[in-house]
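task queued by scheduler; priority normal; single chain, no ligands, no partner chains; default sampling; output format set to structure tokens
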Amino acid sequence: MQLGFSDGDLVDVHGEYADGKDRVLRKFPAVAYPTARGCAAVYYPEGNVLVPLDDTVVGSNTPVSKGVIIRLEPAGDGPAGGSSEENKQVDMPATV
């Protein structure tokens, strides 16, 4: 596996966008897979956190899921799962 990771290592997958919002899928297992050089594959729905809510393809208005630029880092100390600044709700209702 390239980039210094071994098969099974836990990585944090960061979505890279010009808006500067932190979109990260934490503690995702790296798996060697025969993708094209420079490409990666992520499971969905887990990978949805990497896609901006308002970034869609012109014409079809579908999410840009196939064109996400990512950065991989060794997994940090945070909890596993996804987080995105734009998906955080400050005023959560008392009941749902």
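post-processing summary
- The CA atoms of residues 42 and 76 lie 19 Å apart.
- The longest strand covers residues 23-29.
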